[in-house]
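In this notebook, the sequence line spells out the residues, with the fold written below as integer tokens. This is how one looks.
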Amino acid sequence: MAGKPINYKAEYDKLLEENRLLREKVESLQSQIQKPNAYKPSSTSEITEKPPFFQDDAVTSSTINKFSSPDEKINLYLSLFIGRTDVYAKRWENKKKDKSGYSPVCTNEWIPGLCNKPKVKCSQCPNREHEPLNEKVIENHLKGQIVVGLYPLLTDETCHFLAIDFDGEEW
């Protein structure tokens, strides 16, 4: 039983039209995606602008070297490690108890009348006020003056980097 002959030209045209519509849809969706910036001012809760010294995406790891300015190095760091800027953690060590870790930095820590450590845990303190991450903090981190921990999960539940430590013997 012979079927209806296939009109290859019509099938081809139909596929071209479907392809065109799919390309338009992809372009429309891509235009809706906002590429996050590496920095946001501490006065807002969303990433809204790049640091004043950020020059588009022209600064890359291949253009940064030991002769680069501190601002260029900080900018590279902020462009690679996009995390929350309303809070950051600082490494601490307790040599007596042989413990170390990271804790969010509070601007009221140890201030009499505002901080009730160790009676009140920081997470339960009504006066807790996180110090925002800024260029000076990153500069001090890069100089080795402090060890900073970032919170990569943003408030909108997106994440733009993942760092994994593979130097243990079991890896």
Q: What stands out?
A: The two ends are 65 Å apart (CA to CA).
